[in-house]
Amino acid sequence: MRLPNLFEVDARWSQRLRVAERPGPLRAAAGFLAHSGDSWFWLLALVIVWWRGDIYWRTWALRLFVAIAVTAVIVFALKLGVRRKRPAGEWGTIYRITDPHSFPSGHAARAVMLMILIAAWGPAWAVPIVVLWAPLVALARVAMGVHFLSDVVAGAALGSLTGAAALLIAAG
Questions:
Q1: Which of 8, 10, 71, 91 lies in the 20 to 30 Å Cα band around 44?
Q2: How many CA atoms lie within 13 A of 170 on its CB side?
Q3: At what angle do helices 149-171 and 55-82 cross, to 10 degrees?
Q4: Does some domain include residue 85?
Q5: What is the number of other CB atoms lying within 10 angstroms of the CB of residue 16?
Q6: Smallest Cα–Cα separation from 67: which of 127, 129, 106, 117?
Q7: What is the pLDDT of residues 98-142, one digit of tens each?
Q8: Which residues, 6+ apart, have CB-to-CB distance to 124 below 8 Å?
Q9: Hey, which residues does 101 pair with through a beta bridge?
Q10: 1 within domain boundaries
């Protein structure tokens, strides 16, 4: 299969998953999930955990904070190198203005990286939640029309790598 054909297949499957223009509960859920992976939300939550927590939770929050920041830098560098435009659409204006590039998906990378680190470092009650949440965030980004399917697949792969690297670095 030639590269242009792959882009066509990617665009076709991405369009099939799209719900951004269809009002209803599925669109509302996808919009919520698409935003739940926003970096500002996670960074703010981690600052609060660090501020209110004991030494264990401060270390936990700091590790996740650094992992999010490093993942963001890598995603940003790749986006500047690839410069793939986001799919056309109205939803997600803030993303379209602040970051017009779609490949790879930072939300998918962040969600998968967080899933791996929370699965490894706990808390245990959060593991089933993030295992369900991470792929839903990635799919929601496609459903809301701010990414192509290949963007979130690449983002998930990158998140797997950054999560694994963080575990190796933390293990010393």
A1: 91
A2: 16
A3: 140
A4: yes
A5: 9
A6: 117
A7: 888 999 999 999 999 999 999 999 899 999 999 999 999 999 999
A8: none
A9: 85
A10: no
Structural contact between residues 29 and 132, judged by C-beta atoms closer than 8 angstroms: no
pLDDT at 16 over 80: yes
For residues 63 and 163, give the distance between their C-alpha atoms in angstroms, rounded to a whole number. Answer: 11
Q: Record the pTM.
A: 0.92
- Size of the chain, expressed as the number of residues it contains: 172
**Domain count of the fold of the chain:** 1
- Residue partners of 168: CB distance under 8 A and separation at least 6: none
In the numeric block, the tokens 């996808």 are attached to: 30
Among positive and negative, which fits the CA dihedral 92, 146, 63, 133? positive
**Taking Cα atoms as reference points, which of 15, 16, 159, 19 lies closest to residue 92?**
19
What's the CA gap between 12 and 114, in Å, rounded?
29
Is 13 part of a structural domain of the chain?
Answer: no
Token duo for residue 123: 């808390």
Q: Is residue 165 part of a domain?
A: yes
Q: Residue 155 belongs to what domain range?
A: 30-171
The Cα 29–Cα 119 span in angstroms is: 24
Tokens of 131: 């295992």
Report whether 146 contacts 14 (CB < 8 A). no
